[in-house]
Amino acid sequence: MRISTTQMFQNGIETMQRKQAEMSRTQNQLSTGRRILSPSDDPSGSVQTLQFESRIQQTKQFQRNGALAEQRLRLAEVTIAAIGDGMQRVRTLTVQANNATQTDETRGYIALEIRQIIQEMMELGNTKDANGEYIFAGNQSHIQPFTVGSDGKVIYQGDGEQREVSISPVRKVRLGDAGSTVFGDSGSQALLNGNGVFTVSPDGDNTGSGIISSGTVTDIAAWEANTANAPYRLAFSEDVDGNLQYQVLDDADNPVDVIGADGNPTPGPVPYVDGTAISFHGIQVQVTGTPADEDEFLIEPAQPHSVFDGLYKLVDALEGGTSGGGTTPVNNAINQALTEMDNMMEHLLSVRATVGTRLNAVESQNSLHAEQTLQLESTLSEIRDLDYADAISRFSLQQVGLQAAQQTYVQVQRLSLFDYLR
Which residue intervals define the domain Flagellin C-terminal in the entry (predicted)? Predict the structure, then answer.
């Protein structure tokens, strides 16, 4: 076999180029810290790497979603807490207004302060997040949810929906609550007037000093079974001797059995005793003071209303004053308002509790994602990352190989047949 000078040179160059390519690949591995630089390096490992990288990116996206949800929920929680503080202030003012030393003028001042608090609550209801979106507008996040209507009352312009965000492949969390939920207009957490089951109100033509309590429920099933005959009227009258008595009438003016002072059920009329409990159909109310002949109190099932509705009703009563008819109408309105405010505050606490529950869920899921990401990255590192000790040793060996190839080439290129011709 004949070997030409050209062939020897070509073999030497190819050897050096191959050694340089091997060194270059090892240098790339050392600079990137990765063992797999292309799929051909390890086809199986490359597939696993892509799968793990995809899973890590997905998990990190869920973490970003969780961070967004946490930011919105914390803002909502702080805002609802501020609304609750406003409600507490209103309750304090209402108790103050119920003092017998108050006059129409001082109650008017109290009503004015309550109006200011209502304005503050409306502004809190229009809170925006860092992206400039209204957090209590439902899906209408770019529309101001609360505004003042033509009647001077606060109205809600958002919807009852709320966006959700995925915080895991199988778990979603609401980013907040619609304003109708927070302020009790509607939905599963609708706020009811009165004591939450039924509401009482004095007839506008009453002339006596009778003040009715907000009432309690003794048998909810019995009440619900008889709401079809509501509203009920607690009617007072005088007997032939001028003694005050009462009876309860349904919506068809049929007498209803009540528990009288003697503890026995009777359709009435029943002699009136100041402060004695009046019970019928699973509910109980008390009337104090002295109602006049033909005075009446209306008792009917509770209806949905918002926090703003309840506060405006209170303000109207305070601003209406006594109108020459004594303090009884105002006292009745304040008594009902105090009960409704307790329900409002409990409602706000309930909404805030649901926000806190979602916050806990997000925080728990974020902790789980952090652990999962660490585990996935550790496994990915075992598959993809470089063993530096092995790579450095290999690089040193490749350097020696390249130097040997270069020195061999230098020696070979000096060979020539002319050296043997004399």
Answer: 340-421
